[in-house]
Design brief:
By secondary structure, this protein is an all-alpha fold. The protein folds into two domains: 124 residues, no CATH class; 100 residues. The protein is built from ten helices and no strands. Helix 1 crosses helix 3 and helix 2 packs antiparallel against helix 3. It is elongated. The relative contact order is 0.17.
Length: 258
């Protein structure tokens, strides 16, 4: 019995080390911010963990390109477990009321400036797929999250300051130059606010770990669902087992730039 427990612990330690290594190896520009409906997404990921345990052997045989490695399937449950265990995930799911009404109003005003720039740059970058992906990523996230607002302000100011766009943005007549000035001026205050909120949500290191684990888990979940759809396509009664995440119908997603 003692030997069995020791072997089980060693296996868990190996998986934990592999998860941490994969999280650390993820390039910073690939790390996704936590999506909306985090609690619901974690529940969905846990349902996939159950299916992976049931269909492990069949999933690796699905004709994906590139193939779905057994090692990735072994890591998936440990990734999902790590997401649910982080202080940041628990804090975000609970959404503690850490912002004052004035602070929320300030962020809402900044979202208005963000919307002006987003609208203009979507015209400017309409033929630039990478640029449009950047704008789409900036629009993701929680409307009242100061860390999210800080990241958005920094990226939009950097985009506006780029030599390719600076003169163009400065000549616009619908408040875009003023929006750049407002976002740039708000960055120091947002940094202080984000640091305070991060302390209440388990710290920035915990949140970065959450984001890395989520990025890997969601990326892998997409491939697992594709493999699962193939695996169960000819299994009576199981055709609908593997489902992609759907936002809850009873709630409307937050619009950051509303």
């Amino acid at each position: 019995m003692a030997t069995s427990k020791k072997t089980e612990k060693n296996s868990r330690d190996v998986l934990t080390a592999a998860v941490l290594a994969a999280m650390k190896a993820l390039p910073p520009d690939e790390v996704r911010r936590e999506p909306s409906y985090l609690k619901d997404r974690v529940s969905w990921l846990r349902s996939l963990v159950t299916l992976v345990a049931k269909d492990h052997a069949g999933l690796v045989l699905a004709p994906l390109d590139p193939p779905l490695p057994k090692g990735d399937l072994d890591l998936f449950p440990a990734l999902v477990e790590r997401i649910g265990a982080t202080d940041a995930a628990r804090a975000i799911e609970g959404r503690p009321a850490t912002l004052t009404p004035d602070e929320l109003a300030q962020i809402a005003t900044l979202r208005g400036h963000q919307e002006k720039l987003d609208r203009a740059f979507r015209v400017r970058l309409r033929g630039d797929r990478a640029g449009l992906r950047l704008l789409a990523d900036i629009r993701r996230g929680a409307a009242g999250d100061p860390e999210d607002m800080l990241a958005d302000a920094r990226r939009l100011v950097a985009l506006a300051d780029d030599a390719k766009h600076a003169a163009w943005i400065g000549a616009l007549k619908k408040g875009e130059p003023q929006a750049v000035v407002a976002l740039r001026g708000a960055i120091p205050g947002l940094e202080a606010l984000a640091n305070r909120v991060a302390g209440a949500q388990g710290g920035s290191a915990s949140r970065d770990g959450l984001r890395r684990a989520l990025t890997l888990a969601l990326r892998l979940a997409d491939r697992i669902v594709t493999a699962g759809e193939y695996h169960t396509s000819d299994l009576a009664g199981r055709e609908g087992d593997y489902k992609r995440f759907k936002r809850p119908a009873v709630r409307k997603p937050a619009n950051k730039t509303a």
